[in-house]
Specification:
33% of the residues are buried. With 252 residues, the chain is α/β, with parallel strands linked by helices. It has helices at 27-39, 50-59, 76-85, 105-113, 126-133, 137-140, 148-155, 158-183, 186-203, 206-221, 226-247, and strands at 19-23, 43-47, 64-68, 95-100, 118-121. It is built from 11 helices and 5 strands, in the order E-H-E-H-E-H-E-H-E-H-H-H-H-H-H-H.
């Protein structure tokens, strides 16, 4: 199967340590997140309440914000709303992750609509944090194009995984052909990215999933990065199609 040639993308950054702000009023959670993220290569700053987190994120540029939904004085939602409303805030455009011990479906939808790139359910594992770290430009290029273990866990068995990946392949081919048109229709592009994000989760397309989230974030909060993130997304799209070609069974 022939795919479009990858569009020229802005060069990925050299391997550097992402700067991460972790805000959590639970001492044990804060310690675990701090130490685990450092073990994954991040430079981590910890805060124990909302006002501290807002001050730190307003004063210093972070690549990633992990904000607990329930903290004294203000939680993740209040901190992010204040940060996004302040044009002078140093981390106004950072990728934000809401952390919580309880997550009802309506809350997840609300948090995503309010600008969070992902929701991290506590307690979490190192692999969860590695996936979250993959949303930062400094770490994203280390993600696998296809993660079979994650796909098997999400789909349940290899036959279902293969069937879902075949459906994803068709979805990605269609998207390749329509991407230029979607670029001038932001609402339609947002809808397609939302649907694609779900498909990526079931198929273990780790790198593409991270680029989807990053492009969603830039369209909402970092307009100056949209062209760069779009080019990187297009490249990840083609790379994923090429990897799927190699992994899917050949029709009889």
């Amino acid at each position: 199967m022939t795919h479009p040639a990858p569009a020229a993308a802005a060069p990925l950054p050299d391997r550097v340590s992402p700067s991460v702000l972790v805000a959590d009023d639970d001492e044990a959670s804060l310690r675990f997140l701090h130490d685990a993220l450092e073990a994954l290569g991040a430079r981590v700053t910890g805060c124990s309440d909302g006002p501290q987190a807002l001050h730190a994120a307003s004063s210093r540029p972070f690549d990633l914000l992990l904000l607990d939904c329930r903290m004294p004085n203000s939680g993740a939602r209040e901190v992010l709303a204040a940060l996004r409303a302040d044009d002078a805030a140093a981390s106004r455009g950072a990728v934000a992750i809401a952390t919580t011990a309880e997550l009802a479906p309506p809350l997840r939808a609300e948090l995503l609509a309010e600008g969070f790139g992902e929701i991290l359910l506590k307690p979490c594992a190192i692999d969860d944090l590695r996936r979250i770290m993959g949303l930062t430009p400094a770490y994203m290029h280390q993600l696998p194009v296809l993660d079979d273990a994650a796909a098997l866990l999400a789909s349940g068995d290899s036959a279902t995984m293969a069937a879902l990946r075949q459906l994803l392949q068709q979805e990605l081919l269609t998207l390749c052909n329509e991407l230029d048109q979607l670029r001038v229709d932001p609402e339609a592009l947002r809808e397609r990215l939302h649907r694609l994000r779900s498909s990526c989760g079931f198929c273990g397309t780790a790198a593409l999933s991270a680029h989807v989230v990053t492009l969603q974030q830039s369209m909402t909060n970092r307009p100056t990065m949209v062209e760069t993130d779009m080019a990187r997304f297009r490249l990840a799209l083609v790379q994923t199609l090429q990897a799927l070609d190699c992994h899917l069974p050949t029709p009889a």
